[in-house]
Amino acid sequence: MFENLSEKLQRVFKNLRGEGKLTAENMEAALKEIRVALLEADVHFRAVKQLIEAVKEKAMGQEVLDSLSPAQQVVKIVRDEMIKTLGTHQAKLRLANEPPSVLMIVGLQGSGKTTSAGKLAKFLAKQGHRPLLVSVDVYRPAARQQLSIVAKGIGVPVYEGTPEAANLPLELARAAKVEATQGNRDILLVDTAGRLHIDDELMVELQQLKELLGPAEILFVADAMTGQDAVRSADEFHKRLGITGVILTKMDGDARGGAALSIRAVTGQPLKFIGTGEKSDAFESFHPDRAVSRILGMGDVMSLIEKVEQNIDQKDAEEMQRKLIENDFSLEDFRDQLKQLRKLGPLESLLGMMPQIGPMAKELKNAKIDEKEFTRIVAIIDSMTHRERDNHMIINGSRRRRIAMGSGTTVQEVNQLLRQYTDARKMMKKLSGGFLGKKMGKFKFPGFGDFGIR
Ligand code: GDP
């Protein structure tokens, strides 16, 4: 996600860094390049204009020109302005004072409404809510069926309705709300009908649903792959219905990232969630600062940490923290950590979130992380003795040969693993200032040094 935009901006900043001293002229040239990069990445021209003007005003200030590292200052200004464009705070989901809170999911057909309704229900259930799902798309029988299948998959109940109401979206919605109240469900997610294009009939129906249900949120589902089309329909839905937030789906695809920056600028409504895959847990809260860091290639450590925290036992994490601090992180721990990592999902998506690795994501993608590699690493570590696993320093040449034989690998592969292990130790030590040791103060972004951003 965001890859194209990220790559382009990286190039601009790289050139900027190359300049010894920043002058009014080369700043102008850099701004022009940033502008082109944003436009090419499908950011709406209005959003680009705003952004560039704001950056220009700040960047041309005397302070920047006189500072020791003007290029870094410019990067920081671009970053701050991009965050401003996206909204400075994470936009939390609004809930009603009186349950059930109704969340209407609207958007064009195929944008990912049903999938997102399911993902959001799962997300909310994980937070301790008791959601109920209902589809009021009576025009395509398959749509309601699809939601039922999705609901089953995530273990969230779905309101099926009576046969008499099968063709009446308003009646279905009304009855679902009653069901939610009676069944002690605190959130009702309403998957609405979509069309290929915006039409009056649909808009009238959505307005009636809005009136009837008094939703806490009307979330517009936008398909990031459709770029400016998504921005246009978000704008149209907002004008006619008054949306309160956006779920941007298919951010795992080749989306040019621009839609994210544009939607907020054009509708004034915040992005609340992003969909990053077809599976029900490929769904995250949208954080403007993290998204911008990702666009600028600084990785997205906070998202990674959240993912890790969700999936890794707190006790294990604390134990690992202790081990890291005491330099006690053995090969056995390394193996266990790798196994844990497997639980987090595809390695590529995790690596993309890491700073420093972010800019290299493309090469990594080409390299294709080999699933077999994991099995090999585990086999190698399993072939070591306890003492060897405890202290890798004793693994000399003859031990390496024995381990290679035992695990059906080569000495080179054993060497490689030991290198990976020592690298991981170093890396984890850096990370240990963060999620492993919140008490130890502010998280340090390993990649930020390059940009000189604090
Ligand atoms: P609806 O017509 O708006 O309800 O759209 P669906 O929920 O049926 O989604 C349309 C297609 O997009 C389905 O094939 C989904 O699996 C896919 N989809 C939805 N969200 C995402 C996402 O975040 N990433 C990817 N890769 N596919 C998605």
**Main sheet summary:** 7 strands, mixed
Structural class: alpha/beta
Q: Which strand order do you get reading across the main beta sheet?
A: 2-3-1-4-5-6-7
Low-confidence stretches: 355-369, 434-454
Q: What's the shape?
A: flat
In the CATH hierarchy, the third-tier topology of the largest domain is known as Rossmann fold
Overall mean confidence score, pLDDT: 79
Q: Helical region count?
A: 22
Number of strands: 7
Radius of gyration, whole Å: 25 Å
Strand content: 5-15%
| CATH class category label of the largest domain | Alpha Beta
What order do the SSEs take from the amino end to the carboxyl end, as H and E?
Answer: HHHHHEHEHHEHEHEHEEHHHHHHHHHHH
Bound ligands, each once = guanosine-5'-diphosphate
